Amino acid sequence: MFVVRTPFRFGPGTSRLASVSVDIADVAARMTARLDELPATLSHRRVFLGTYLRTTLAVAAAVDDAAFEDPDWVVRWDAEFAELYLSAHDADRDGRGADVPRPWRLAFGAPAGLPPLRHVLLGINAHVNYDLPQASLRVIDDADFADPALLARRRRDHERIDGVLAAGVSAEDAQLSAGAKSVLDRLLTPLNRQGSRRFLREARQKVWHNTEQLQLARTRGDSAYASRLAELEILSAAKIADLVALGQVLLRLAIAGFGVVLPPP
């Protein structure tokens, strides 16, 4: 049985995030609270949430280690990115289905009995394909897009964040695969890890493309932006539906491709 490792706790004597912006510490604390609040009937959702919490702590550690050119921007990005997931999570828990984006509705509604790695991939797809372009636009304004040097720094930090995510996915895959009972699953583990790395590499490129497409729509007004975001929601939901289907997910996606791409307007 998969067991989520004990999440970081805040209290007397804790110092892991002492030098990190309060924003990331707050994000981690909010995730920990939601882990504690999940009822037994939703225990399968602990898998992605626990993974996300550990990834958030890894980003915090990278900020502490001066891994980014603009750490203040990374902290703002981290908070905005997490907020989109937490809002969807809370809306679903509160029964406000209309406020849950379609990709997250499908991810949250996936059968509880799916393998843990499948639940992690569902969450990653919904969050990266649909939420990440939106989060990026919240911290990269139109003036930034007009400044090539600044935009290049943003993109480099964006890629460094992906490096943290890639390391996290490899660690999670190792943990989840350790409990695999199927001989086939054990034999396919190296391919799964290669697929995870490829997913993140392709997703990064496609996310940046989609961010640029949404930014162009934003310059044309709220209606144009809403229309393009609706397209992204449909594409992202279709990818989630494919992941829910039976079969070796990473092998199938290795053929079909990872991420989604907004077509020209």
Main β-sheet: number of strands, strand sense, barrel status? none
Terminal Cα separation, in Å?
47 Å
The secondary-structure element order is HHHHHHHHHH
Shape: globular
Structural class: mainly alpha
Q: In terms of per-residue confidence, which ranges show pLDDT below 50 for 5 or more consecutive residues?
A: 1-21, 179-191
Quick check: average pLDDT? 81
Explain this structure.
This protein is an all-alpha fold. The protein has one domain. 72% of the residues lie in helices and 0% in strands. The protein contains ten helices and no strands. It has helices at residues 22-37, 46-64, 71-93, 102-108, 116-139, 142-145, 148-178, 183-219, 222-244, 249-256. The protein is globular, with a radius of gyration of 18 Å. Residues 1-21 and 179-191 have low confidence and may be disordered.
Jot down its keywords:
265 residues; mainly alpha
In short:
This protein has helices spanning 22-37, 46-64, 71-93, 102-108, 116-139, 142-145, 148-178, 183-219, 222-244, 249-256. By secondary structure, it is mainly α.
Itemize the secondary structure elements and their pairings.
Elements: H1 22-37, H2 46-64, H3 71-93, H4 102-108, H5 116-139, H6 142-145, H7 148-178, H8 183-219, H9 222-244, H10 249-256
Helix pairs in contact: 1-2, 1-3, 2-3, 2-5, 2-7, 3-5, 4-5, 4-9, 5-8, 5-9, 7-8, 8-9, 8-10
